[in-house]
Amino acid sequence: MAGNRLSVMATLLNEDHNAVITGFCSARVLDSAEVDPGQLTTQAPAAQASVDEALQIKFQDDTATLALTGPLSSMRSAAPELLSSSRSTLAGDTWAFGWALTGSMPSGDAKCDSTIVTYTTKRDMFATEGSAVSGVIKGKSNNAQRKSLDSWHTSYLGLCRLMSDCWTPNPTERPSSAELLTDAVFTPMSVPIPSASKKESLPRSSPLLKSISVQHIKGSETLESFPLFSSRRYASRAGFAELDDAADNAMSQGRTHFNKKNFNKAKLCFIAARNLYFEKGCHAGFAETLHGLGQVYGAQGMLDDAESRYTTAKRIHSILDNNSGIADTTSELARIRRSQGKLSEAKELFDEALQVYTRTRNNRNRAKILHELGDLFQKQGLYVEAGKQFHEALQICTGLQDDTQRAEVLQKLGDICLKQRQYSKAEEYYTQALPIWISLGRKPARALTHRRLGDIYRDQSRYTRAESHYKQALTIREVLGQGSSCAIILDRLGNICWRRNQLSQAEKYYFKALAIWTSLRKESSRANALRRLGDVYRDWDRYTEAARHYKQALTIQELLREKLSCAIILDELGNLHRRQGKYPEAEEYYTKALSIWTSLGKDSRADALRRLGSLYQDQGRYAEAECHYKEAMVIGELLKREFSSALILDDFGNLRRRQGRYPEAEEYYIKALAILASLGKDSDRANALRRFGDVYRDQGRYTEAEDHYKQALTIREGLEEKLACALILDDLGDLYERHGRYPEAEEYFIKALAIPTPPGKESNRANALRRLGDFYRGQGQYTKAEDRYKQALTIWEGLGVEASCGFTRHLLGGLYLKQGRYTEAEEHYTRVLAIRTSLGEYSNRADTLKELGDLCRMQARYSEAEKHLTEAISILALKGDKPGRAAMLRQLGELYQVQGRYSDAASNFTNALVIDTSLKDELKRAETLRRLGDLYLRQGRHIKAEEYFTEAQTAYASLGDKFHHAELLCQLANLYRMQDRYLEGEKHFTEAINILTSMETKSNQAEILRKLGELQQQRGQYSKAEDLFSEALQVSTRIGDQSSRAETFRQLGELYRIRTRYSSAEESFTTALQIYASIGDHLGRAEVQRSLAVVNRLQYRFAVAETTFREVGAFYKQIGCPRGDAYTKCSLGDTYRQHGKPGEAFELYREAQTVFEKLNHNPGLADAAVGRGRVLCFRGLYSQAYSCFFEARNLFASVGNKIGVVEAIRGIGDLYRFQGKYSKAHEAYVEARSTHQRLGHQNDPSGLAGIICGLGYIHFFQGRHSKAHSCFEEAKSLYDGVGNKLGVAETFSGMADLYRSQGDYLKAEESYTGAQIIYLQLDHSLGVGEVTCGLGYLRRMQCRDAEAESLFNEARELCNEEEHGLGAANATLGLATVHLARMECDTAASDVKKALDFYTRADVLPSKARALLILAQILGLKDHDEESRAYHDIDEASAIFSEIGDEEGVSLCQKYRLRRAYPNEETPAMTSTEEKRM
């Protein structure tokens, strides 16, 4: 029968204190299958419960209680299985019997059934108040529990164990009724509970007193003490007649269960064996069982209980003088101390055990202790000491031929070598261990060794071998069905692919690992796999997916409340957004991570502060960055984390370097290096040495920089870190490039590229190619640079790394922009912009927009340029990048300045200056000040310009930037010259020269020499300038800088052109042209072609010049450079004008003017205006010409071009001269000459000669023949000096006119002939026409009218062909004089009127007056009725002569009038000059 009514309430005591069980109303008859033959059975009751349904629990709404329904029973004594089983069993009665033994109410303190159910289902029903057995059952061993047991239920130790058996959770493991009966026989009998009403103790039986005394002897063993009945029950159940055999068997079974990790069964067996040994009196066996119990408790994590057993066992072994036992228990105690983190105590105990094993020559156990000592040292990071222990253990194991332990020690030796990055040694140990594991068939160990070997090869970048070992390990783990281990190896394989940039394969491995962790419901590991996938997508530039996976991982860790992991992922999200230039989002994530690190009190809070500091540094928020670094430093110092302190010092150094505060940066780096050296952190020390080298390099201290780089290289070579060596080789290459040691630079860049690239590190090769491309671009070797960039691009495209593809295309775009290949540049920039937009790379996107803005500006697409730059500024403002925003504002300011939008330009420059000042970035501040000075100089606001230039040069001087300091001094010198402050200007020029001469740097030595050459050229020191340019050429040739060579040849060509050494100029320009063509610099090539064309024009090879100018113009049109095209049109216009083709010239000037107006380019507009003015003068359109010259003068003045102003004033002087306004002309020429001489522009002697020649004509027309002759001679000398043949011809023509007017016909003819020969040689039609006209007048004065007529006709025809109105009018007037001499009055009058019409329209006053006099003479001869008209013409001519200051002309008119009025009377005779003028 089985029931569930057995309880205290249903148990009665008879007079003999024997229990009588009652209350079987709910019992049922057992099925035959339920009856155990070995159990004691009783007669079944007559009645069976009518109800046999399952026991159910229901909630009563009205009483808010739980009710037990089904077979009638008590909730308090119900077994756990009755709450779910369909029927009651005898095992349930055994459970209830256990409660009956307590003598107390089951779950006595429970007030409601729900509490009882909770206790029962959670196996916690024994924790109720009043349950004295709770501590025994739950295995607690605290002092309070012990005191409770000792004071209250000491007499029930046997009963406690019996109750424990009854309350076994598994019903099948509970004692049968027969076993209960057997145990009851041996239970010491006594009154169950001491009388509460009496203070004295009741009598106890002698067996119970014996049991109690035994427990006191055992001391700490009270909690598991078995009374005698337990031992006997075990012996009887095991079938042993003798306790000896039963004890040994129990001990053996305990060890078996322990090895199978059945710790509860092992504990029961050890306890049974211990009590049997105790009853037998076997102390050694008793101690051995305590050792076994200690092992069980240790495995269950109950370290205090384990320590208690080991301590007792050691005491017994000491009494027995059992050295082996002492050593064994001591080593176990050491292991407990190690588990508790008490490493020093553990070492002492291990040492004690080792001494015993050594003394007893127990080598096997000695090897084990040495092994464990090695583990202990390894845990402390004392790898040297650990290695010694492992090596000694290895020798012993080898001698004992203990392969298992030998393999384990080899594995440990490999582990410590791996941790110390001693890869060769680690590989050797693992390789020795691997065949042992294979021979022993130890697959898990073999898999672990394969994994460790994979780790070695992975860290060495030997990815193929690493992959092979990982895959072997994976195969073994898959066969063993070890999912977690498989996932770990898949993670390693994914890491290899990630390192090799095989991101697609890495993704697959990580997804497999993720699937395993998901199936195993290992959420933390699943989160880690998601984070790894985030890393893959981040490096794949798939930032959206990366963010999604990071956020999934973050959600899991947040649900798991893994704050540490959450902080790590938040940092990764911050890094991701920082990489995209999304600084506000990055700051938010970093701040959240910092909050978690702070709450956890982790040392990593300092690292989080460093990350935030670096973010602020990137944004130019230097004050905030410094604040965070300081806080991180305080934490590092408080925690005495020297390594962390070193890294923060390094951060401070980077910050100071970014700010240009190099001495402070140097101090921080020195401190960081000292700490890293003391800690033996060689890899980090090498990094710090590199950065230290960067500081010296930036300061131009190249020797010190080289020393630091080479120290870093030595360290990396010692660590066999080849890829890191490649980076330092690149640093050295960059250093040598800056130092001007270009052959060495190229050598080191090539060395870096030559370092073998391991599989998966193709990205390193791509970066090396890119750096070599940068070098070649800097050298002007554009073809080589393009080739290296394209190779790098191919690698990146193969790897599918979009961000790197975009960066390389960005470099190609810059190369094409420099070459003038604008279409290709724009194509690349557009693609880069699309890539960076899709990736969300805001910062880099702004850089691309800047380059596009530059491209559009160079093509005069100003609205597009403005749009790009404005968008870039918005992006940088949004992400808080202050330095980037300031740079972009400067760029936009330059664009506005080019357009003439000076107010907008000033606003942008000023905003940039505010940012630079707030950032304390003195270098950028000086640059902005210089640009503001340039702006105000262009506006003619010299005071403001001087203010900004002075402040900028002071800033450069304080920063020690000599080159820019010298540049600012030159700009100030030019400004002072424009203000006629020549002494100050010369002083600044001299200071600039001294500074540049003192510079010892080789990086830009050729540039400095060229700058010095320019300064000497400006001062007219041509020989010194040539020497400096030649020296620069030698430097450029020696270092192989082709771009620098080409530029130097170009400057030499310009110098030779100024000095009219045209053959040398042509040779230099041709060489420069060849170099530019070879390196692919199309823009440089076009500029030199234009210079060559100018040289051809100056040598009057007009056809060649015209062809070249047209080729250059076509190139500028092709690349979309309207400014270059417009300037070329001006140059071609000058060619046509000098060639005597004013019509074509004027059209080209007008086209150039249209382009310059669209560009709002004042310097170009001024040049075009001068050209148009010259042509209009030829045509006699003096009013329009004056407007052009006046406009040019104002434009040149607005941009600070003094020599241009002189050119415009000279044009005005020529204009007044042609008009006969000699006073105004003289005034203009004098102003032009004075300004020219004050400027010291000896490099323009032709300009000065032209001014002097003009003055000569003024003196001639005003009758100051001596001065005129002197001016013509001086001008001719200047023209001769520079080989200006046109100028020489002009002076010949002027002197011929002078000689003709003086009646010196021979010299006049010689001069005309000299001029004519030059003009004919130069194929200068206009010049030929003017000289022919002059010869005609000479022949007329010689009365050789037939020759004169022929010459006048020839001259008029030539002038009409070239649209030279003034020349044609002069020739026509000459013809009139011939006809007049022949008395062909009508024809003469007709010719005079034609000439007079032009003179009147062109307002050519002297010629008009002369024509009026000739017309008056004709009228007087022709018809006396026209006498009044003749007098009118004479009076008008006299008025004109008077107006223009021609006193001789006025006298001539007066005498002629008298002769007309009194033909028969004697009148004042005309002078010979007057006769000739008539």
Main attributes of the structure:
1478 residues, 70 helices, two-stranded antiparallel ribbon, 4 strands, mainly alpha
Q: Can you characterise this structure?
A:
- The chain is mostly helical and 1478 residues long.
- Helix content is 77%, strand content 1%.
- The chain has 70 helices and 4 strands.
- The strands form 2 sheets. A two-stranded antiparallel sheet has the order 1-2. Strands 3-4 form a two-stranded antiparallel sheet.
- A hairpin with a 4-residue loop joins strand 3 and strand 4.
- Helix 30 runs antiparallel to helix 31.
- The longest helix has 18 residues.
- The C terminus is likely disordered.
Indicate the radius of gyration in whole angstroms: 55 Å
The biggest sheet amounts to:
2 strands, antiparallel
- The stretches of 5 or more residues where confidence is low (pLDDT under 50) are 36-55, 59-68, 124-157, 188-230, 1466-1478
Strand content: under 5%
Cα-to-Cα separation, first versus last residue: 166 Å
Summed over residues and divided by their number, the pLDDT gives a mean of 80
Share of helix among residues? over 70%
Number of helices: 70
Q: Which sequence of strands runs across the widest sheet? A: 1-2
Oligomer: single chain
Shape descriptor: rod-shaped
Structural class by helix and strand composition: mainly alpha
* DSSP strand tally: 4
